[in-house]
Amino acid sequence: MTINENFLKLKAGYLFPEIARRVNNWTEANPDKTGDLIRCGIGDVTEPLPQAVRDAMKTAVDEQGVAETFHGYGPEQGYGFLRDAIIENQFAGLNISADEVFVSDGSKCDTGNILDIFGPGNKIAITDPVYPVYVDTNVMAGNTGEADENGAYDGLVYLPCTADNQFTPAIPEEKVDLIYLCYPNNPTGTTATKEQLQAWVDYAKENGSIILFDAAYEAFIQDPAIPHSIFEIEGAHDCAIEFRSFSKNGGFTGVRCGYTVIPKSLTVTSSTGEEVSLHALWNRRQSTKFNGASYPVQRGAAAVFSPEGKAQVSALIEHYMGNAALLLKTCQEIGLKTFGGENAPYVWVQCPEGVDSWGMFDKMLEEAQVVITPGSGFGAAGEGYFRISSFNTRENVEEVCRRLTALA
Ligand code: MLT
Prior knowledge:
Blueprint: H1 15-29, E1 38-39, H2 51-63, H3 80-90, E2 101-104, H4 107-113, E3 124-128, H5 132-140, E4 156-160, E5 178-182, H6 194-207, E6 210-214, E7 240-245, E8 258-261, E9 267-269, E10 275-277, H7 278-289, H8 295-303, H9 307-333, E11 338-340, E12 346-350, H10 357-368, E13 370-371, E14 373-374, E15 385-389, H11 394-407
Parallel strand pairs: 1-13, 3-4, 3-5, 5-6, 6-7
Antiparallel strand pairs: 2-8, 7-8, 9-10, 11-12, 12-15, 14-15
Helix pairs in contact: 2-8, 3-8, 4-5, 9-11
D-malate is lined by residues 42-43, 108, 131, 186.
C-alpha cells in the first residue's frame, strides 16, 4: 500500500479551515464573547439567493417531480440553455462559442482539477500572495518539492506582489509553462489593466505558456476600463483558460456552480510532436470524472441572466461594494494603508507598525471579536498585511468599522 506522499508536503491545514479551527478554539475559551463575533475572514456571501434564482430552482425541482419533465444525467459539459446564456451575457463579441464553456460545480474545483490535463515537470508561476488552492493543488499533484521555513515550495516560481510594485507581478525572466493569474485579485483586491494583461498574453505566446485566468470576481469591477475576461486580450484564445463562478455575484457559495472556458484553438504539442487540443482533454476529463452540475442548480444559474436576475445581482454587488467602501474609509481614517476594495470585494490592509499578519488576526479576534484573514496565509509576500472581506450584512460591516476605530 502506498499513498500520495505529496500530501505530506502540505503546510498545516488549508487556510480557511485553519482559521475556523483557531476561531473555534477561541470561542470555546471565550463563551461569553462568542455572540459578538463578526466573520470577515473567508469570502463567503451572506445575502440571500436572488429571488429569480430561487424561483427558477423551485420550478426545476417541480419539473423533476413529473415524468414528462424529469431530467436524469445531464450533459457533462452543462446544459445548452446555460452555456448559451453565458455566451450571450458574458462573452458577447469575444469570439467564444457555447461549446467552449464547461459548466461545473464551482471554480475552486475547476482550478484544482485542471491539473489533470497537464503532465509532470511543468514550471509553474504563481503570484505571491495567492489564492491557496493554486499552490496546494500543485503540491498534491507532485509539481513541487518541499516547502522552506517561509512556506515557499521548491520548484514553484513565485511572483511577489507588494506595495512596492503596486501588487503587479513582474513578468518572469525565465520561461514558465503555467501561469496562474486572478483578476480582480484575491486576496489583494487589485486589478490588471488591458496593457498589463496584454503583456502576459504576449509572454505566454512567445514562450508557449498557458495562462490559467481566474475571473471569479469580475462582476465586482466598477471601472469600465478594466477587462472582465482574458479573452478581451488579443491572442488570449491561443494561450489562456478562464475560470468563472456564480458564487460571489449570484450568491452561489452554498449552491455551487461555476464554469471554465477553453477555446478550441488552444493546443499544446505532445512529446510525440502531436498538436493536442486542451479543450478535447478537458472534455475527456469531465466526461470521465464528472456528471455535470445538477439540473435545478443550472436553471438557477441561468436565471442570473434573466432581466430580474440581473437587477437582483446588481443590487447584491452594490451592497457588497458599499461594504467595501465603508471598510476602506474606516481603515484609511485610522491611518492604515489600504489596497483593493474598489473593484473587488476584498480590502487588503497593511498591518500597523510592529504587528505581523497572524498577530493582527489574534488582535482583531481577541480585542475586537472580528475575524480577518492574515495576509501571510496567502503566501510569504502577504506577511505584514491582512484581508477584510466585505461579504457581510451592512449592520455587521458598520459594527466592524466602529470596532476598528475603537481599536486604533
Ligand atoms: C476566499 O475567501 O478567498 C474565498 O472565498 C475562498 C473560496 O472562494 O474558495
